[in-house]
Design brief:
mainly alpha; two-stranded parallel ribbon; 2 strands
Length: about 140
């Protein structure tokens, strides 16, 4: 019997744990959200939601921790990007919203069109959350001679 493994199986095996760097967890959330949007198979959808829930559970308690010294350069740019977000919840609120939507979607009690809308909302929030976690935070000072 041939086993069918969908294209998104690899994200289900992405390794992460409590020691995983928050930027890697944010990237994992991002990839899981993309895969969730493309997934229509309920077994894989549930597995993706479980992985999203696990990733968020690991991220949430670390959101107010200082950025480790070895990552400072990664978050330092010559000029900070201009932001135009109208919806500006903090990282803790975004994480909480994502966890709540993940929990609701795991219950599988929505109409298909409602489920699709909630998946879209979860993904948009996950992308915003991951983008915020991975965004530059400091600008290098320009030294004038």
């Amino acid at each position: 019997m041939t086993s069918y493994l969908p294209q998104h199986t690899d994200v289900l095996t992405l390794p992460f744990n409590a020691a995983t760097d928050f930027t890697d967890l944010a990237e994992c959330c991002d990839r899981l959200a993309v895969t969730l949007m493309e997934c229509n198979e309920s077994v894989y959808k549930m597995a993706l939601l479980a992985r999203i829930g696990s990733c968020l559970a690991l991220l949430r308690p670390t959101l107010n921790d200082p950025i480790p010294a070895h990552l400072i350069e990664r978050f330092t740019v010559d000029k900070l990007p201009e932001t135009q977000a109208c919806f500006e919840p903090d990282a803790e609120a975004l994480c909480e919203y994502c966890q709540a939507l993940t929990h609701v979607l795991c219950q599988q009690s929505q109409l298909p069109e409602t489920e699709q809308a909630l998946k879209g909302l979860l993904c948009e929030l996950m992308w915003m959350f991951a983008g915020d976690l991975k965004a530059p935070r400091w600008a290098r000072e320009q030294v004038k001679h």
